[in-house]
Amino acid sequence: xxxxxxxxxxxxxxxxxxxxxxxxxxxxxxxxxxxxxxxxxxxxxxxxxxxxxxxxxxxxxxxxxxxxxxxxxxxxxxxxxxxxxxxxxxxxxxxxxxxxxxxxxxxxxxxxxxxxxxxxxxxxxxxxxxxxxxxxxxxxxxxxxxxxxxxxxxxxxxxxxxxxxxxxxxxxxxxxxxxxxxxxxxxxxxxxxxxxxxxxxxxxxxxxxxxxxxxxxxxxxxxxxxxxxxxxxxxxxxxxxxxxxxxxxxxxxxxxxxxxxxxxxxxxxxxxxxxxxxxxxxxxxxxxxxxxxxxxxxxxxxxxxxxxxxxx
Length: 312
Known about the structure:
This protein has 13 helices and three strands, in the order βββααααααααααααα. By secondary structure, it is mainly alpha-helical.
């Protein structure tokens, strides 16, 4: 709860009455100018979070400038005091591709449907990277900003939004590198490549839905972060990143295709490699699950985030 004291005083230049708001503190701590009327009562304004199960998009729009500040701060803090700075946005996925290529491409020799294995893996890794980063940052958004939210009121929904947008900026650089790598291997992307930013909404909304559901719980139950990490690893091996989906037994395919990341990866390989894309009813069921997870997460987050500030 944020308390504002509104103090009426005389403007020193024009002589007219004006208001001043002082955040926090007690009345004895407020410095009164010499020409102010000490007999006038102080007006106290109490700002409280909204009650109920509303989402609060109106407040998010009103604080859109703060969203820009939070996003810029998040980008600056992530790569501050790093020798290579933003180059890590490219080096990290390239290092993962190198490890996967040696282990699964050269040693285990997993099939890649005739496509170059590094390109095959990278096209599956980019949407997964957005999912992994967005899950971690959105689930941790309240815990990492506890010092801020315990002192200043603003729509808390700005925190997971800014975190996911920051991760999307990182992955956008990876997507550009992936397109250049495709061209280097002789796969010239067609007009379908312009659909990829919309395809990225699938892992982004899925990850944000998970983060909104768990953000308030992570503040109280720190062990949940380890459970989330294990779950992300399960999703990784349950998605066709390092192997072809054709290797999945036919009896499991209807359930396997309910994974939203499966469709993100399939769309990536269709747009970049020209791989055949077969839309099944599981695709539409998967979209319904993603939207349901995201919308329910918004309501859960708004309902319980206000309780997080009481946790020390």
